[in-house]
Amino acid sequence: MTDCITDYIRFCEVTTMTARTVHCFSNNNPWITSDLKALLNKKKKAFRSGDRGEQRRVQHELRKMLRTCKDNYRRKLEAKFQQNSVRDVWAGMKHIMGMKGKDRQTSGSLDRANQYNQFFNRFSSPPVTPPTPPAPHTLTLSQMVRPSPQHSPVSTSPSTPPPLLILPPTVTTGQVKRRMERLHQRKAAGPDGISPSILKTCASQLSPVLGHLYNLYNLSQEKVLLLWETSLVPVPKKSRPPDPADYRPVALTSHVMKVLERLVLAQLRPQVRTLCNLPISPI
Questions:
Q1: Measured between alpha carbons, how far is 203 from 178 in angstroms, rounded to an integer?
Q2: Mean pLDDT, to the nearest integer, of 33-55?
Q3: pLDDT tens by residue, 103-137
Q4: How far apart are the C-alpha atoms of 97 and 94, rounded to whole Å?
Q5: At residue 256, what are phi and psi to the nearest 5 degrees?
Q6: Closest CA to 214 of 257, 184, 178, 253
Q7: Where are the alpha helices (DSSP H) in 17-164?
Q8: CA gap 131, 109 in Å, rounded
Q9: pLDDT digits (tens, 9 = 90+) for 240-256
Q10: Kindly report the CA angle at 260 between 259 and 263, in degrees rounded to 5?
Q11: What angle do CA 21, 25, 29 make, to 5 degrees?
């Protein structure tokens, strides 16, 4: 059921969201617009035709348009400074200076990839060792001599009370919607391929479905692990990492599962708050 819901969300994202193709040229400055590009093409056309009057007219119009475009881009950067959007400001400055991001991908063979998989997953799958039977000379007297049924000692411990019936936590549609609206849109998508921007934008439509899914996969059942799929992305710490320890593993978890984690945390926090305030006795 989880796979069906996530696949349908990706299908709706592909079919309903509009896509736009943008042509980017490496030698274009960020203040160059489509109108300015049209004037540049008109200037080239006038140069090929040899019309001096048309060239002077287009050149005068081009200078005026270029001054206007630079002024508009300057105001755009100043607005980002006023909005405290440091990320966008630095992205614009890097684009102006021509700085390009480094290629963090490394090349290698299939054996090297398998080696990295074993290295990063060594804690998730510990080796299972069968219990070794004790040696005959290490047996104690109580282990070798068992009491007979008629002389078995009577237990004097009090009877244990019956276990309390703890109902699994349930969530409402409003709680799911409020938690989805708090997602960070710039975060990377998880292994399911659903971006947080989709969950935040379509919170009103997806909150009833995800709320039913969370209540169906309650904590009393062992089905929460179906949502807990995390992929590790090794990010190199050096330009040429020679060893698997030179990689920093970055875990990508599904944002659908992160919403469930926050909802469960909100219900568990009031119950353990009294335990957190207990004084710690020195040992």
A1: 8
A2: 86
A3: 556 666 778 778 777 777 776 665 556 556 555 55
A4: 5
A5: -65, -40
A6: 257
A7: 34-49, 52-82, 86-97, 110-120, 141-144
A8: 38
A9: 777 777 888 887 888 88
A10: 90
A11: 115
